[in-house]
Amino acid sequence: MLALPVEHVDGAGFAFTTREGGVSRAPYDSLNLGSHVGDDPAAVAENRRRVAEAVGARDLVVAEQVHGTTVVEVTGPWPDVPPHADALVTRVPRLALGVLVADCTPVLLAAPGEGVVGVAHAGRKGMTDGVVPALVEAMRDLGATALLGRIGPSVCARCYEVPEALRAAVAAQVPLARSVTRHGTPSLDVAGGVLEQLAPHCWDVEQLPGCTVERDDLFSFRRDGVTGRSAGVVWLA
Ligand SMILES: [Zn+2]
Q: Is residue 1 situated within a structural domain?
């Protein structure tokens, strides 16, 4: 069985996958959870099954992510094609929500006492356009008040160089995203921006350390181009 570090808080579970423990072949080796990157669909299905099993869930659901701000409430696995969405919420126990990343920031939210969990895919565009506040609002609509958040590994500010004009445009929306690379050139701290957006709404929020570009055990689109996707996963026990 896949060995996946899992954090439990009051009936909600949080986990972030790495490349380890799956069946996909190079360049998707080995725990690729993305079905849109050219990998063998049977391998992706087996990898998703392993993650669901590892967290004790009946199913792992993953949307078709499009760098938008749409939030979809999930009540069970989709029979056919997954919806286009960059955030998911559910009140259903043992239905694990997954958010796919390979440099973008995976955001997990839970209100375990009120039985609501959610995920958001926050890349530079989604973070700037407000996918994280949209997820918070959707969770509140389902009755969540006491939120806690976990932010998974993504490309770090030292590695994420962008043109000065882009940095200025993003920082106008989310000031804490303004940063510099290790070479002193303009960069974005997307995870820092997400933290800024979450902090006023969460009684507890943690950013897990680690940069996808720098860590060989994580998928990185910026580093490798054609590659797999990891997932942040949240569920109600
Ligand atoms: Zn880095």
A: no
Tokens of 206: 């943690």
Q: Does the reported pTM lie above 0.90?
A: yes
**Identity at 32, one-letter amino acid code:** N
Q: How close is the Cα of 187 to the center of ligand 1, in Å? A: 11
Q: Ligand 1 centroid vs 78 CA: distance in angstroms?
A: 35
For residue 95, being part of any structural domain is answered with: yes
- Bridge partners for 91 per DSSP: none
Residue 176, token pair as written in the block: 């804490």
Residue 136 belongs to a domain with what CATH number?
3.60.140.10
Q: Distance, CA 115 to ligand 1 centroid (Å)?
A: 35
The boundaries of the domain holding residue 17 are: 8-236
126-145 confidence digits (pLDDT tens):
999 999 999 999 999 999 99
